[in-house]
Specification:
This is Dihydrodipicolinate synthase. This protein has 340 residues and is an alpha/beta fold. The longest helix is centred in the C-terminal third of the chain and has 20 residues. The protein is built from 12 helices and 8 strands. The chain is 41% helix and 10% strand. It has a domain of 233 residues: TIM Barrel.
Length: 340
Amino acid sequence: MPVTKSTIPAKARPLPPGVYCPVISLYKSTKTQEIDHDAMYKHCQYLVRGGLHGLVYQGTNGEAILLNPEEKKDVLRTVRKAVTELGLPDYPIVAGISAQSTNESIQLAKDAYEAGASFALLLPPSFWAKSVSEEALLGFYRDVADESPLPVVCYNFPGVTAGIDLNSDDLSALASHPNIVGVKLTCGNVGKAVRLTSKFSPEQFSVYGGSSDFLFPTLEAGGVGCVTGLANVFPRSTAHIYDLWIQDKKDAARKLQEVVANAEWACKKSLSLTKFGVGHFVGKRIGLTDPKTFNPRRPYLPPNEKMQKWTIDVMSVLVEEENSIPERALKGAQAVNGTK
């Protein structure tokens, strides 16, 4: 018996398909670790030139919980300037708006809109996890989406929300909201992705994997892309899996997926290893030579020497592939990996 397809309308502003990077935050080498906007600008342009289809700021990899509201707005202004000066003023910028209260999430959505973001990414509340009933959970998303000037993407990551997991029934219910356009499944549940894509077209409700190590399976299951921390280090390779797949070069996409999955293992261990990987493999390319730029914000610590070596060994499997893929050709770019 075939699955009943949803008849909800297509969304007015769906999130474009492809590979998105949840961009790390970069800091100055001071005691208070102020945001280094020059570094953020350079890294942003590097990622766009690497062929990524969109960028996410102030998510988990962006250490959103460690940034204050003014810092969040300033970063979004910086990166909107960076993509505009590459000749891509409408490039998708997704802003994390996750907070523990409905009111704060709505305010973050409004702030992000004013600062130049195009979409919003929202975790479920989790401060009192046992009190987050299905009614409270669905009400939270609907209330925020009602007031948000940006289309909302649900963000499911039980590892950072005290185990709260948006299941396929929850997400199917939320998909009917006109301002909720998709989901990022960092839970890694491909079965959940299949259940959702069997009911909804991407225009109705888009499904994205939460990392690139299962991008190929996500696409095969009907998903439309992923949001991957590894793209901070290897933007070309991660984006290229998607590009090969949509060109129907599935054997090549599958082979690249295998290498990417092995490199991403380092990102699974901790954010500090992802940030170290950016510093090691990308820093010199974009003129950022101070390793402290890539440290986590205090109280979190950079990796020790043993884990640094391990990260280099694990990620190095992707270096040759990354270097073989050309950068995105851009017309009318006004800057090249640097602030004007």
